[in-house]
Write a structure and sequence with these properties.
Layout: H1 3-6, H2 10-22, H3 66-79, H4 92-101, H5 107-120, H6 124-128, H7 132-139, H8 145-162, H9 171-174, H10 182-193, H11 203-211, H12 220-230, H13 236-249
Helix pairs in contact: 3-13, 4-8, 4-10, 7-8, 11-13
Length: about 290
């Protein structure tokens, strides 16, 4: 019955048995979940790196605790008592144009361009009915000059034809101007008219709001709402200028100069380059009185 099996060499039988015993079973490769990038200044899971203080009996003050916010405002007042908008302008209209031109461009470059620009185009009517190709060449150094030309001319024309040549004084009206969003509106209303309608949120304010754990949002409108909820309204205008100054001079994007920062005691950002309280984010006792 099994005579056919006797004709197969034993070494071939053992080799096949060994092959099937050793051969691993194939399993589908595991899918790797996409790694999410943490927001600047925050640790994993979008949480502050500190939750409780375990050193002595000191009290931890984190996030938007009113005492911590007050300490931040006091520190900014000490460093930048005279902070203001660094865009050169003679009137609200010039400030509006300069702010539009400052998108993706430094204030220094904008000031260089507008020094001669406002001599050639002294009034809104001059911008509104300018030759687009000529205006494009004038503002070309600020970048994105074609889009900025459309915005400047569109806003100027609306101001001339709908607002009697005057920049609107309300958030609702100024947002109707072409090329004007909340950032530009807040700059003009706050700096030119002294109207605290909101908080200016530019790239520096976004970065510092996260590092100081005043907001964990990613979109400027949501960050502005968070800041408006914790900063007193009478501080909105000055706070915006001070935070922008601090972002340009000390809390820069790469390698912040923490050694020169008097907000360091209240900061627990993961971006810090040095710390006087590496084991705890507790405020000095003087801040808690």
């Amino acid at each position: 019955m099994f005579s056919w099996y006797a004709n197969i060499p034993l070494n071939a039988v053992f080799a096949r048995m060994l092959f099937w015993r050793v051969m691993p079973s194939k399993k589908p490769p595991k899918k790797r979940s996409a790694r999410k990038k943490n927001a600047p200044g925050l640790s994993k899971n979008n949480q502050s790196p500190w939750k409780t203080c375990k050193i002595g009996k000191k009290e931890c003050v984190l996030g938007t605790d009113p005492r911590r916010v007050a300490a931040i405002l006091a520190g900014l007042d000490e460093m930048y008592p005279n902070a203001t908008c660094e865009l050169k302008h003679a009137n609200p209209f010039q400030l509006l144009v300069s702010t539009i031109l400052s998108a993706q461009c430094t204030d220094v470059r904008v000031n260089q361009v507008t020094e001669s620009l406002y001599k050639k185009y002294p009034k809104p009517e001059a911008f509104a009915y300018a030759t687009p190709s000529e205006l494009e060449q004038e503002i070309r150094p600020t970048g994105f000059f074609r889009n900025k030309t459309k915005s400047v001319m569109g806003a100027s024309k609306a101001i001339v034809e709908e607002f009697g040549g005057q920049v609107p004084r309300t958030m609702e009206e100024i947002l109707t101007l072409p090329g004007v969003a909340r950032k530009t509106a807040n700059v003009v209303l706050g700096t030119a008219y002294g109207i605290a309608a909101g908080v200016v949120v530019d790239t520096h304010v976004i970065r510092l709001s996260r590092r100081l754990d005043l907001s964990r949002k990613g979109e400027p409108p949501k960050i502005e709402q968070d800041l408006m909820a914790v900063i007193p309204q009478n501080e909105w205008i000055q706070f915006s200028h001070q935070l922008i100054w601090h972002g340009r001079r000390v809390c820069v994007a790469r390698k912040p100069r923490c050694v020169d920062c008097n907000l360091e005691p209240v900061c627990y950002s993961v971006d810090k380059t040095m710390s006087t309280h590496p084991d705890s984010p507790c405020l000095p006792e003087s801040y808690l009185k």
